[in-house]
Amino acid sequence: MKPCDITITEYLLDRLASLGVDRLFGVPGDYNLAALDKVMEDPRIEWVGNANELGAAYAADGYARVRGLGALLTTFGVGELSAVNGVAGSYAEYVPVVHLVMGPATAMEQTGALVHHTAGDGDFERFARAQRSVSATTAALTPDSAAEEIDRVLLTALRERRPVYLRMASDVALLPVPAPTGPLPAEGRSFPVDARSLERFTEDARRKLAGAHSAAVLADFLVDRFGARDALAALLDSSGVPFATLAMGKTVADETRPAWLGVYAGAFGDPRTRQVIEEADVLIRAGVRLADTTSGGFSHGFDPGRGIDLQPESAFIDGTEYPGCPWPPRSRR
């Protein structure tokens, strides 16, 4: 190794630490022991061993909900499959968890060797294919592209607020790469903004609100996931309109405000809350996902195709999309 080199595992740990991650959850297994030694040597990140991988996945999920990003280390095959249910929950609820999987040595993969934790058919991509359905992006790390892929995958987790998957052969974990020379770039951490589309949306939204007799705000959990609490507070401060949340979004705004209506739950909710939300000339929805469990079994009394809809990647007015208008238009970190 050159004096400025570190191992690929150390590179990943450095990036995680720079993003505020100080706990790594998981279960030891023979394929991940070499990487785990590096974790134990790093004073910035504490190893939190769990009884099983499913518990580790849920622990990383809970950590990410509080800290903004979580990390999970499992062994190839049986370990990652044990964790997948927790990772799938993180995917469904927009929780960014970095799932690092350590596998058999490169030579074993290249020869299709019949080694433990595989299906015995030489297919070493089988489990990675399963992970793709519950990950925002995946990568198999190689010496030539490990640093670039780690950065790309981490930026995706920050931008899309969903789990990501990194797989490494056990021998690759200790190979050298140049140490990072700076932090992850600010660009790529959030969805890009289209200035012309944003200007058009702003003009059209002002026009629509100017012609309305009443307006209300309905907020949901994506406000929290994408770091839009301050933006929501500013909207409520400047407008003074009544507001409610769905159950998943409870507490995303200050509930001591006089304009607070309570939790909106369709036909299952308070009649006054329902009346104000459903009869507003313009309903502004902030990070709303209408699910059966939060909309009173889809008994909501407003048209989701009408009003102003603010989503993490785009905005909508009466069903017309304004691409490149994320809300808020900045990174959470």
What secondary-structure arrangement, pairings included, does this model have?
Layout: E1 5-7, H1 8-18, E2 23-26, H2 33-41, E3 46-49, H3 53-67, E4 70-75, H4 78-92, E5 97-103, H5 106-111, H6 126-132, E6 138-140, H7 146-160, E7 164-169, E8 176-178, H8 195-210, E9 215-219, H9 222-225, H10 229-239, E10 243-245, E11 260-263, H11 271-279, E12 282-286, E13 308-310, E14 314-317, E15 320-323
Parallel strand pairs: 2-3, 2-4, 4-5, 5-7, 6-7, 9-10, 9-12, 10-11, 12-13
Antiparallel strand pairs: 1-8, 13-14, 14-15
Helix pairs in contact: 1-7, 3-4
Task: Point out poorly predicted stretches.
Answer: none
Task: Kindly provide the radius of gyration, computed on alpha-carbon positions and rounded to a whole number of angstroms.
Answer: 23 Å
Give the fraction of residues assigned to helices: 25-40%
Count the DSSP helices: 11
What is the string of helix and strand elements?
A: EHEHEHEHEHHEHEEHEHHEEHEEEE
Structural class: alpha/beta
User: Overall mean pLDDT score?
Assistant: 94
Q: Strand content of the residues, in percent? A: 15-25%
User: What is the number of E strands?
Assistant: 15
Largest beta sheet: strand ordering: 11-10-9-12-13-14-15
Major beta sheet summary: 7 strands, mixed
Shape estimate: elongated
Distance between the termini: 33 Å
